[in-house]
Amino acid sequence: MHAAMVAGVTVPKLCATDSLDPYGSCRLCLVEIEGRRGYPASCTTPVAEGLKVKTQTPKLADIRKGVMELYISDHPLDCLTCATNGDCELQDMAGAVGLREVRYGYDGENHLKSEKDTSNPYFQFDPSKCIVCSRCVRACEEVQGTFALTIQGRGFESKVAPGVENFMDSECVSCGACVQACPTATLIEKSVVDHGVPEHSVTTTCAYCGVGCSFDAQMKGEEVIRMIPSKNGGANHGHSCVKGRFAWGYATHQDRITTPMIRKSIHDAWTEVSWDEAIKYAASEITRIQGKYGKEAIGGITSSRCTNEEVYVTQKLIRAVLGTNNVDTCARVCHSPTGYGLKQTLGESAGTQTFDSVMKSDVIVVMGANPTDGHPVFGSQMKRRLREGAKLIVIDPRAIDLVSSPHVKADFHLKLRPGTNVAMIAAMSHVIATEGLIDEAFVKERCEWDSFQVWRDFVSKPQNSPEALSEELGVPADEVRAAARLYATGGNAAIYYGLGVTEHSQGSTTVMGIANLAMATANLGREGVGVNPLRGQNNVQGSCDMGSMPHEFPGYRHVSDDATRALFQTAWGRPLSSEPGLRIPNMLDSAIEGNFKALYCVGEDIVQSDPNTQHVTHALESMECVIVQDLFLNETAMYAHVFFPGASFLEKSGTFTNAERRISPVRRVMTPKNGYEDWEVTAKLAEALGYAMHYNHASDILDEIAALTPTFKGVSFKKLDELGSVQWPCDDANPAGTPTMHIDEFVRGKGKFFITEYVPTTEKVNAKYPLILTTGRILSQYNVGAQTRRTNNTAWHAEDLIEIHPHDAEDRGINEGDWVGITSRAGETVLRAKITERVQPGVVYTTFHHPESGANVITTDNSDWATNCPEFKVTAVQLNKVSQLSDWQRQYKAFSDEQIGFVQNAKAEAKI
Amino acid sequence: MIMEGDPLVLIEGMTIAGLAVGATQGYIYLRSEYPDALVTLNEAIANAYKAGYLGANISGSGKQFDLEVRRAAGAYVCGEETSLLESLEGKRGIVRFKPPLPAIEGLFGKPTVVNNVISLATVPIVLDKGGKYYQDFGMGRSRGTLPIQLAGNVKQCGLVEKAFGVTLRELLYDFGGGSASGKPIRAVQVGGPLGSYLPESQFDTPLDYEKFTEIWAVLGHGGIVAFDETVDMAKMARYAFEFCAIESCGKCTPCRIGSTRGVEVMDKIIEGKDHAKNMELVRDLSDTMLNGSLCALGGMTPYPVLSAINHFPEDFGLKKGQVA
Questions:
Q1: Which residue has the higher pLDDT, A136 or A785?
Q2: What global pTM score does this model have?
Q3: To 10 degrees, the CA torsion angle through A902, A905, A907, A908?
Q4: Counting CB atoms within 10 angstroms of each CB, which of A127, A177, A746, B61 has the fewest?
C-alpha cells in the first residue's frame, strides 16, 4: 500500500493509517497480484521486485462493494447531521466503491442503539458509529503506549472498550491519539461536535512543555476548533498529550485580562487605562525610581514561556535602555545548573541529542525526571523504544510510571534518598573506573587527559564505592554496581534527566557528574547516546539562549567579554555594563534590604514558582513599582502596580526552542485579545523610555538575533517556513541545523572532567522534621497551573495532594483524604493525603500546580552553589493530621479574594 | 487419541522437530475440553524429563528441548495457527495477517513451527521405519493414514484410521453400517463444520486432498457427519453462518459482520421473504466472505453454504437442478 501511495496510486482503505503498523482487518485494500492466489490485502503484503499488482478490477470492485455493504448495514445513516460530515473516511470509501444500496436492510442485529460515552471533557465516544477497525486501540498501544483501550467481545459483539465503564475512569491519559486515528465520528472532539468541521489550518508550536510539539491549529475564522498534532513535527511526529491537544481553552477564558491596569499601592483597587496611559505611567515610574535610587534599583524577569523574540527584546530593554544587567529568567529555578554544568564540561549549555536519538539507544537512564508526566510525547517515544527491548535504569526516589507500566519495566530502579544524586553518580563512576569499563581511547582522543586522571583517581577512592555510599543512598551496593555496568557496557547508553537533578544544592555538580560519566564511557557524539536535559517549559532552552541570564549576552557570551560587549553596544547604540547583574534571589534579597525598587516581570509568576513564598511576597511588597505582563492576574500580579495584558501563543508570532535545541515557529492564528503581541508591549515601553525599537514583525527581531549570535546565524522565519523547524547551531557550516552535537569534537574543544565531591545538603531530617518532602508534576497540569487550571484538565487533577507511604501515614494516624499539615523550617501548609507506595518510607511528595496549595511556602532558601537554582527537591518536614487550612492558606485566601475583587471592580467600573 | 493413548510419540516428534529447526522450547496447545489428555500429557512430559528425554541435555547429547502444555480456552478460531500464537502469548485469540509466516515471525516474534499433533506424532514413525514405509500408505499426494471420525446419522459412530484413498461410501456403509435411522443417507459434511456438503452422487470420491479440492470440498481433519433424507439443507446453511458468527474472532469485516448477516439472510430465505433477491444476496455475501476474509474461518463458511445450495436447491425453494 505504501509503495502504491509512493507511486501515486490510491487504494481504498479503512483500517490502515500511516501512523500505525499494518493490521489487515477492513479488507478494502485487497488487490490482485499476478501469479498469486486470491486477493491479498495491500497493507500487509510486502512489496517485492517485479511484483505486478492490479488495484482496480471488476472482481475487486465487487469484493469492496460487498465489504462496504456489510459496514453500512451496521452504521447509522445520519451523514448529513454527523459531526464528521465531509471529514469521514467511511463516507469517502462508501463513495469510492460506489455503494448504492444496502440489501440487508436495517432490521438485523446492529449497534445503532449503543450509548455515547461523554465522560471525557474533550472528546466523546459514540460506539454506534464504530467500524471496529481497531485504529484507536492500536494508537493507544503503538503511539501512546498506555494500553488503555481494547476490543471487548468477539465476532459481531466486538467493540472498542476502555477496560472499565467509561473513558474517564479508565487508564486513558487523554492524549488524543485515538481521536486522531479514528476514521469516523466514533471518537471525536466535542469542539467539532459543537462547532462543525474547521475551514483553515495554521501550523504552530505548542506552548506547554519542553518537547515543543508542532500542531495544526484548525480554525473557523478567528476561532480555534481543534489542535491537531502535526505529522511533520520534528519533535512529535503527529503525537500529542492532553495539554497541547486539548488544553488551549485558557486563551479565551473569562479570567483573561485584556485591558491595561494601574494602581498606586497593592492595597488599592485597580483602574483600567488605555495602553498609552499604562505605558506612560510605567515609564515615568521607572524613570523616577532610577533617578531616585540609581540604575541598579530595577530589573527584569523573563519567562521560559515567552518566545525567543520576547525574551530577546526584554533583555535588550533591561541592558540597553535601563542600563543594567539585572535580568534573569525562570530557568534560574529549574535548569540553570544544566546551562552551567554542560558549558563547563562539554562547552555548550544544551542537550546533546535530538529526541529521535532515543530510538537508537540500547540503555536508557532516566534520572530525576518523569517523562510520561512532564514530557508525555517524548515519554511515549521512549516507551516505544523500551518495548523494542532497550534496557531502562530509573534513578528516582519515587516509583514513576516508567518503573512499571504496560510492557515497560525498569531493569533497575535505584530508589535513592532525595539529595544524594552526587553520591549516586560518584558510586556509578567508581564502578566504571575501578572495573575497567572506561573507554580510554575515546577519553584520550576527545577529552583533557589531565582532568580525566584527576577525576579517575577521585572516583576510584574507596569512599566513593557503592558499598561505602550504600547507606547514604539507601540503595544496595550490588544494584548500583549492576546498573553502572549496564550503562557502561550495554551498547548505546543515553541519560535523560530533569529537575530532580538540577533543583538541589548540588544540582550543577550532578550535571557535571553526568557529563563525566558520559565522556568516560564514550556515550557522546553520535545518535543513541548523550546527555539530555528534559526542559520543563516550552522555551527554557530558548530563553537561556537569548541572554536572559544576568551574566550572559545572547549565545552564552559573558558580559565581561569586551568583544561581545562591543558588538552589542554597536548594534544597540547604547553603552552596556560589564558587570553581571542580579539573579532573581539577589533581586528579592536586595528588595528586602531596600535597594531594589522596581521589577518588570514578563510572563513569569515568581510568587508561586519560586521557593519560600513569604520571602518572595515580602520582597515584592518592598518594591515601589512592580510591572507584570501576563494573561491572567497571576500570584505575582496581586503584588503589582502596573498590569500589562499579555497575548497567548495563539495570538503572536515568534519562535520557541525545545529541549533538543529545535527552533520551531509560533504563528499567530488569531488577533490578540489584548491588542498587542508581547514584544510590541516591551518595544512600546522602550520607546516611552526614549529608545526606539524598529521592528515591524517578530521576524525582524529574529533577524537581529541571527546577525548578533553565531549559533543562530542561519535561522530566519523564511528558513523555518521551508524546513518546519531547525536545531541550533545553525550557521554557514550547518545550514540545516545540528541534530546531534559534539560529533567530532566537543564545543569547548576537549571535554573536561570535573571533580564532583558529594556534600550533603544542610537541609537535614531530624526529630522535629523527620520526613523529606520532594516535588514534581502531573500529566494533566502544567507548572504553576495558570493555563491548565483554566481548562477542563482540572477534571483529572483538581487539587495538589501529599503522597505518603503507608508506614508513615499509619505512624501519624493519617488516612486517605485526610487534611495533613506539612511543616518545614520555612513555613506550613495543608494538603489532602494520598497514601501510596510510590514514595518510599521517609519521603513525601507533592505537586505545585495550585497556588492555594502553598507548596513553596514550605520550600526553603537553600540553592545550588553555582547557579542559585533552588533546592526544591529536598525539604525536611513533619506531617500531622489537622482539621483546617494553615494560617498562610487562610491569609492567602483573604488576600487573593481581595485582589480578584479589585480586578472585578475595575472591569465593572470601566463598563459604566 | 494419540495424546491420551501414546503421548510419548508426540513428545518424541516435537523433540525431533525442535532439534531439526534449532528450537529449544515447545508448546502443546490443548483445548481445556480434554482434561484426560492434559493429565496424561503432563505425566508423560514429567516422565520424559525424569528419563532425560527432555530438558537441558537430551539423552546426554548436550542439546536442549523443553516442552510444556498450555491449556486453551476453547475458541475454534484458535485452531488457526496465528490466533493460536496470539492466544499462547496471552492475548485475545485474533488472527494475524500473513506474511510474515510464523516460521519467520511467530510466537513472541520468534521463528515458530506450528503443526498438527498428527504431523508431529508421525515424525518418529517415519524416522523409525523409513520414508518408504510411510509412502506405502495412501494415494496421490495424500500419504499416510488419517484417523477419520464418523458421526451423525450412522449406525456405528467412532474413529477409523485408514490410509488415504478409501471412499466415502466405504466408510459410511462398510464401517458406519449405513444410517442409524435406516433411511437413505442424503448428505455428508466432510472436514468439520466449515466443510462442504456432499450429495450421494459424490460418495465414491476417495479421501484424498486433491480429489476433494476438485469437487470444491475439503477433507480437513477427516470428520464425517452423515444426514439422512429428513435433513433441511437450508437450515444447515443457516447453521454454517451461525457457527461462523459464534466463532468469529471479529477482526476482519467479512467474517465479523458477514456471518451475522448470513444468518439473517438465511432466515429470510427460509421464511420465503424476497426470495430471489435474498438468494442472490447470499451468493454475493458468500463471495465477499470467500475472497475477502482474513483467515479460513470466514473464508470457508461459504463451503457448506454454497455446496448446500448447489447440491440441494430444492431445500432452498428452488426447483431441483435450478441454480439460484
A1: A136
A2: 0.93
A3: 170
A4: B61
